[in-house]
Amino acid sequence: MQSKRFTLLLVLAVVVLSVASLFIGVIDLKPSELWSGNLEMWQIFIVSRLPRLLAILCTGVGMSVAGLIMQQLCSNKFVSPTTGATISSAQFGILLALLFMPASTLWSRAIFAFGAAILGTWIFVWFIQRIQFKDVVMVPLVGIMFGNVIGGVTSYLAYKHEMTQALSSWLVGHFSLVLKGRYEIVWLTVPLVVLAFVFANHFNIVGLGKDFSKNLGVPYNFVLFMGLTIAAMITASIVVVVGSISYIGLIVPNIVAMYKGDKIRGTLVDTALFGAVFVLACDMIGRVAIFPYELPIELIVGIVGSVIFVGLLFYRLKYGRKAIRLGHAGTSCCASMPREKGGEMV
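Given the sequence above, the corresponding structure tokens read:
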């Protein structure tokens, strides 16, 4: 019952914040004006407010689920699209599209971003599998360094070809440019999240190691690369439309796991809902903090996320994967997951 109450509370929070988000902005949009059939207000609602809300929900759900998948597959709670070089790789793909196809459409840039994000994530996981001795902190540090290398190459090429200003829209995440007809790529997160839920049990098994997966008849390499591909495509579809938003895929799965344990099927729905709540709250703070101006959501998420990340870092180093109990229904996870012989997984 405690677990179901937690889920229902998240659903209620999503509904309340979604309704509030629709009526926050520079233009004073009131429900009474929509009800009276004001065509100008309805146009603002359909062209701007509703697409923005849908983009926020897809971003929160998608980035949280992508982080959960990567953490499960790598058996490390500090791996995410941010610390796994996925976001940096997607930005590099967008730059390649701008360089080689200056007149490219949003979908063309998305294809480049998909390819670069998938390749960068695969290389990162391949690299950490080759490290024989690693701990919970070393793996994300390797990912951060790898991401910085990709980011450095991206910045160099952008400066060299005078593309810095054109690339700037994707370096800082914001929803201010989300309009009808320019955001629909983020809808790809919906079928990808559904696919992640279908294969959730397989991701759990693969997270326990290669030998364990083979003993249960699960194709380790196929499920591993499929999961990484799903996470990379979710991240790239969001980066193309919204830009870079850090920490969501890192802190949201950790917070939910502290209360509900590490089983991905049992936490995926709550992780998606909590991610939506987190992004909605941060976006509303950014819109009202210096009203009528707007702060990029990357700034708000960065400030809040960095504080939470430091707290999670100390918690994980002290208690490992131990979960906080929710009454008698809570789950408590063991301090560490089984490790693969030969250092295949974390």
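Residues 2-319 form a domain with the ABC transporter involved in vitamin B12 uptake, BtuC fold (CATH 1.10.3470.10). Try to locate this feature in the token string yourself.
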